[in-house]
Amino acid sequence: MAEETPWQQALRYANRADPYPFYAELRKTPVARQPDGTYVVSTYREIVTLLHDPRVSSDVRKLPARAPAPAEPGAEPITEAVIELEPNIITCDPPEHDHDRRTMTRHFFGPPHAPHQISDLEPDIRRIVAGLLDGMRGKTRIDVVDEFAYPLPVTLICKVLGVPLEDEPRFHAWIETALDALDFGPEAASEEMRSRLAGARRSVKELAQFMSGLLGQYAERPGPGMLSAMVHDGGPDGRMSEGVLVSNAVLLLFAGHETTVNLIAHSVLTLLRHPEALEELRRRPDLIVPAVEELLRFESSVQFWHTRSAVEDIDIAGTTIPAGAPIFLVYGSGNRDPERFTDPDRLDLERPDNEHLGFSQGIHFCFGAPLARLEVQAAVGEFVRRVENPRLVVDPPPYRHNQIFRGPRHVLVDIDGIRD
Amino acid sequence: MTLSATLAELVRDFRANGRIVIVGASLAGLRGAEALREEGFTGSLTIIGDEPYEPYDRPPLSKQVLKGWVPADHTALPRFREVEAQWRLGVAAIGLDRATKQVRLADGEQVPYDRLLIATGTRARQWPDPAEAALEGVFSLRSRDDAARLQQALAARPSRVLVIGGGFIGSEVASVCRELDIPVTLTERGSAPLVGALGGVIGEIAAQMQRDHGVDLRCGVSVASLEGDAAGHVRRARLSDGTTVEADVVLAALGSIRNVEWLQGSGLAAGFWGVGCDAGGRAFDINGVVTDSVYVAGDVARAPHVLYEYQFLAMEHWDNAVFGAEVAAHNMVNLEPHYRPHLLLPGFWSGQFGVNIKSVGVPPFADEIVFTQGSVKDRCFAAAYGRRGRIVAAVTFDHGKWLEYYAHLIEESAAFPPPPPGWDRPDVMKPVPAEFPAPGVPTAIPDVVLTGHDPNERRAEFRPRGH
């Protein structure tokens, strides 16, 4: 067996807690062809260039058909579970993308239609955060993921979309099952990962059926939230078809909290690893705004994206990406590129000119970014202010399997108490 | 002491004890002042502005302010840091004596400087007939006060607004009128709106967009005269084609005039196109020799641009004011080899008729245009401009997120036409003439102007006024 490339090593579960040394190796070849024909882009400048290049497609349907029997381990991508749905706004191109995103924006944060939609959520966010921290009173050990990072975003996204919170246990299980089955590395070929696939397909299907049912209910009887609004009012671009509506509703629900959970968990973890930064933030609460940007750069919630491909030959960084080749843009590596960020492995809450890739760039810039920022600023800011003497119990903590949506499974922290 | 140690001491001393005067208290003036402090300049700083207001942001004046969303006095520019300056607001600079290094103010005061930053910008060109311009209901739009007055006039629901001039300001105001459901006529001397800035091909799209939104658009005509009623209120305009337009609000959107009159006799290279300077913001004197103590930034500056055959560019754009001022400020408190160039790729945006128009590069430099992405029919597209086989500019209608791609191509002097996109291709992707008006054809002066140095072109004759 040939030696594994830095990219393949970065994807191994054993390296999930710290893929950065492999990214550094990877950046020596900014655009690196992998054995399966995928081109992995790891440097900031090249990522940004390709994010803005109209010869790059994000459409899953334009990905080349993969070889049915992989010649070598890791050659088989596991995107089929996603492909069963119609493309959502991350996995399609203009003009389709533009119509759909416009229609969704209309009901999310886009002035003049809904200018206060996000900012009006702040009191709710603060109330939920306060409640979660109040609930930790009397405890000496907490799990930041289960008790703090997860409940806030999931409660919020249910409210924003109009998904009943009582359905959380069901959709949580479906999403977990699907995420745990997705693997782009050498371990994809393992017995274990292969056995997860069927379950993942079933879960995605059930999640889609659940959404379809909910959208159907809203079609008959309008209710609060974005889903109902999207069913009834498409704006000038017209309403989305049912299939497109379902896949985007699934996307909003899932991406609307998973990434935020990981960001909050990673933020707390990172601050506990950098006591001087934590102390600085405690002394100067206003720093939370640039701090969240730096934390997003430091531990990006979306490490890379996997649905892009070249539609034409693209010359870049001394390489030609041939038409048809899949392209992975590794945001997590670009965010640690020393050519762009001075001393990139250092956490600097006041980092100047911090145009990170944590939300991507270009037309697929994170749809939920304004909501995520508000949530994470409130959550991390209040955690730092209120939790007395937090100490990491296990470092590194156990990680979830997923490579794209990288985050800790649990972050155990010992505490002395909760301030008012 | 060695020469370099002496120079270093000089720079240190100037940064601590020097006197800097900034003339112009708008975007470039403010950002220049902030940049000076950021650079570690702790000497005395004086900012002179002819308007009584602290620096404010102009782009909203023709949009959000006129729509009534934002009051005109709520447009103050955000401050990035303390500037600890002496502000001389509401008093214009009226003269510059470079021999004694003093700025003369309208109230007679003389303000001494060691280094001077000229950021006096432009003003709106007024309706040429003073009696007609004085009629009530005749407006121009450049300042906060202009915007407040015009907003009030629109809020009073005039029976019809006449906009004279189809540049960006005129088109944006026509758009606001339609949004407020006020009848509006727009006259443009050229073949289409925006033709000076974006050429005839895009101008035709802009024209159709205006007509679709109910603007009574009249191209190829000019306004011969304005007529008022007995009370001195404007009532109608007579056009060059013999027709008349009844209107009780008239906006003269005739482009801008650079504020250089106060520099008469200063011996600087100041004239119709602004104040000539090098790419580091150092002003040229009348002989074309660079000065060491006078700097220029913002709308009033014109400098050679490497990407455009070193022709002199005057860029009346927001980011040019910001970045030009930062570069000038840096160079004011440094010496060679620490000078920085201002090599901005020009860019601008406009909002009108529900469409976000953005551009990078210098479209009027081009001879050809090609649609590259999206749909002209939906007014959601990107187009690239080329000159002799290289890309020099791009424009987008509701496609602004792609501009960075084109900016990159322009910076690399990439081939024109650019490679086709992988999806969302326009119906026609063949380069066609961009149809910029020939020099001398009357239209509004575009926001970016090439003022030329090509030896084959006739040189502008240069006559300082008042002599």
Automatic annotation (TrEMBL), chain A:
Species this protein is from: Nonomuraea rhodomycinica
InterPro entries to which the protein is assigned, alphabetical: Cyt_P450, Cyt_P450_B, Cyt_P450_CS, Cyt_P450_sf
Keywords, alphabetical: Heme, Iron, Metal-binding, Monooxygenase, Oxidoreductase
Keyword Transmembrane helix: no
PANTHER family named in the record: CYTOCHROME P450 YJIB-RELATED, P450, PUTATIVE (EUROFUNG)-RELATED
Keyword Secreted in annotation: no
Membership in a protein family: Belongs to the cytochrome P450 family.
UniProt name for this protein: Cytochrome P450
Pfam families for the chain: p450
Gene Ontology molecular function: heme binding; iron ion binding; monooxygenase activity; oxidoreductase activity, acting on paired donors, with incorporation or reduction of molecular oxygen
Matches recorded under Gene3D superfamilies: Cytochrome P450 (1.10.630.10)
From TrEMBL, chain B:
Keywords attached to this entry: FAD, Flavoprotein, Oxidoreductase
Chain intervals for the UniProt region annotation (Disordered): 439-467
Residues forming coiled coils: none
Domain Reductase C-terminal: start-end pairs: 348-417
One annotated Gene Ontology cellular component of this protein: cytoplasm
MF annotations from Gene Ontology: oxidoreductase activity, acting on NAD(P)H
Bias (Basic and acidic residues): 454-467
Transmembrane domains' residue ranges: none
Cofactor(s) listed: FAD
Keyword Flavoprotein: yes
Family annotation (Pfam families): Pyr_redox_2, Reductase_C
FAD/NAD(P)-binding domain span: 19-322
InterPro entries: FAD-oxidoreductase/Apoptosis (IPR050446), FAD/NAD-bd_sf (IPR036188), FAD/NAD-binding_dom (IPR023753), FAD/NAD-linked_Rdtase_dimer_sf (IPR016156), Reductase_C (IPR028202)
Cited PANTHER family: APOPTOSIS-INDUCING FACTOR 1 (PTHR43557), RIESKE DOMAIN-CONTAINING PROTEIN-RELATED (PTHR43557:SF2)
Entry protein name: FAD-dependent oxidoreductase
